[in-house]
Amino acid sequence: MKRILLPTDFSDNAYNAIRYAMQFFRNEECTFYLLHTFTPTSYNIGYLIENPMPYGLEDIAMINSNREIEHIETKIKEEFDNPKHSFERISAFNMLINEIKDTVDRYNIDLIVMGTKGTTAAKEIFIGTHTMYTIKNVTCPVLAVPSGFEFEEPKEILFPTDYYLSPTNKYLPFIKDICNNHTSRLHILNAYYGVPLNQNQENIKDFIDNYFTDNAHIFHIADGMDVLEAIEDFQKMNIINMLVMVHNKHSFFENLLFKPVINQIAHHTNIPFLIIPSEKRIGTDKKNNPNSLKTGKKENQDMVVE
Questions:
Q1: Rounded to an integer, what distance in angstroms lies between the CA atom of residue 213 and that of residue 166?
Q2: Rounded CA gap, 104 and 201, in Å?
Q3: Of 64, 127, 192, 239, whose CB neighbour count within 10 A is largest?
Q4: pTM summary value
């Protein structure tokens, strides 16, 4: 049974991501953890008027958080009514990212599903602030769902890679599960700069070919382009339902996440974006936090380009 974390601020954007998750996992047994966090800056003056005394600020926020998150669960069950799905509600007086990290470790979360933009996010920003920092700080996959995106089967998945990834990454099977459950075709895209693949890269390419041998998959080369250009160009020529990437620390990811992306090249954010942590990032976090990822497995580091 999969364990899926669904953070919510009770916005339409957050609920849209929840709706996507319900449909994406409609044929799988899952426990969904509905998470809402609150801090003093998130208190609403209306709550104070409705609940003047004898409650304190934290009590008022907790009461309203519990009430709203229960309402979300009821709304989900009325809309989808799936016996394969169960729900847990979490309201916490904490910063969102801190609580997400704690929840991932506490409940051994398999995936986080979030909306890409908050209510005040600028349109030219690649991804919402909360989602951006979640991707940077957690060591489990994150599925970012664009605001307003209506569910469609991920029949065509784009997987850009430089072939510097670990074949023992514990989350690679998740990509395979998606391909199996949705009869997806995987487009494996490499940005070519005129330098041939080295032997390690060739070995990883062969591994990917064998690993997905039972799934439809195609290798592509984008000649003379960086990764962003390659993604942009590929989506102009092909219908893609989901973008999947491994988050290597030294990849283009850092610039992509922390700088605005101009509207002309940002249309690829209009599809769900699955981010898989590299094994090196998982291992680093495990070293810093011995209580996380108690898998008992030996972790090998991903090979990355400096």
A1: 18
A2: 32
A3: 127
A4: 0.81
